Amino acid sequence: MSNVRLIFIRGTLIGVMGLDDVFSEFYDSGRVVDESLRDELLDKVKDENFVPEPLENDYADALIVEYQKDCEKQASGERTGAGQKTYRGIPREEVPWFPTIREDLCDGCKICFDFCPHDVFEWDDNRNLPVVTYPFNCIVGCSACAPRCAPDAIVFPPRSMLEKFKQA
User: Fold this and answer.
1) What is the value of pTM for the model shown?
2) Residue 13: strand pairing partners
3) Same domain for 46 and 91?
């Protein structure tokens, strides 16, 4: 089974299968971000994923942004892709523990963004909101940012969901 990376497409977190492999292939071959890469990335992603035709441009835009971030991490020597972390022996990307921002409640105070030491959030200046760009940087079980949010705009899954990840 291919790895799954979550990326934001039109403000929605979408799981894209095989993306780390696609990025590695392009990075290893020295591909830089340009207009032709946009279409090639989209075509490769469509090999393993359903991409609704009306959203192809949005997917392509998001893929270019993610590839650029991935290249910057690779160039800095930072590890990228699936399998970096585990939780109780389970690959971190298989454990859906990360915050969700209730945009209708968020007041744009930036407390969560400034507080989180794991770089889970990026700041969207246009909407004056945090964006959960790196959900798997969130430490499983940590929800320390949530009580700091006065309008209760940060939501986590129930802790009880972690019980199914206990190893026998």
Assistant:
1) 0.53
2) 8
3) no
- In this predicted model, what pLDDT tens digit does every residue of 51-100 receive, in sequence order? 999 999 999 999 998 888 888 776 655 544 443 467 777 888 888 989 99
Query: Rg for the chain (alpha carbons), in Å?
Result: 17
Low-confidence residues of the chain, pLDDT below 50? 1, 79-84, 168
Instruction: Quote the domain boundaries for residue 118.
Output: 86-165
pLDDT at position 136 is 87
> Six-digit token pair at 149?
């949010």
Structural domain includes residue 50: yes
Domain CATH for 95: 3.30.70.20
User: How far does CA 86 lie from the centroid of its chain?
Assistant: 16
Asked if residue 81 is part of any domain, the answer here is no
What lies within 8 Å, CB to CB, of 157 at 6+ separation is: 96, 97
